[in-house]
Design goal:
With about 130 residues, this protein is an alpha/beta fold. The protein has two domains: about 35 residues, no CATH class; about 70 residues, no CATH class. Helices cover about 45% and strands about 20% of the residues. Strands 1-2-3 form a three-stranded parallel β-sheet, covered by helices on one side. Helix 4 packs across helix 5. The protein starts with 14 loop residues before the first helix and ends in a 6-residue tail after the last helix.
């Protein structure tokens, strides 16, 4: 299974801001509206990079993509342990993980970014997701 490399967002903009973006696209500064928005977001993330890095370290977040497979969670269960999952980026709980296995092995789940898991697993962990 190939992990997705992005998450789709929907935003609402005022008509004047949208028109200004369209002017910049029309005049060739950006290839399209999405290119403008991605660039603006990246610029803001660079502006606040130190704050984000400090928070990532302070909160002990794993950075990037983290996948939890059935085999991973069965090993946690066999060791009679529990996971406190803290991810900044994308956390994936594999499709073959049952809700029961997830509840038995995942004590808490914090994801800043996106969580990809079956709706059943998300429901089973609802009281543990922050």
């Amino acid at each position: 299974m190939k992990a997705p490399d992005s998450e789709k967002l929907t935003i609402n903009l005022g008509f004047v801001d949208l028109g200004r973006i369209d002017l910049l696209v029309r005049d060739g500064f950006y290839s399209n509206r999405s290119d403008f928005i991605r660039t603006a977001i990246r610029n803001q993330l660079l502006t606040h990079a130190d704050v984000a890095t400090n928070a990532t370290n302070r909160l002990s977040l794993e950075l990037g993509l983290r996948t939890f497979t059935r085999t991973d969670l069965e090993a946690v269960a066999a060791a009679n342990e529990h996971l406190d999952i803290r991810v900044l980026g994308l956390a994936i709980i594999a499709d073959d993980v049952t809700p029961e296995l997830a509840r038995r092995t995942i004590a808490s789940l914090t994801v800043l970014g996106a969580l990809h898991a079956s709706s059943e697993v998300k429901a089973a962990l609802a009281d543990r997701i922050s």
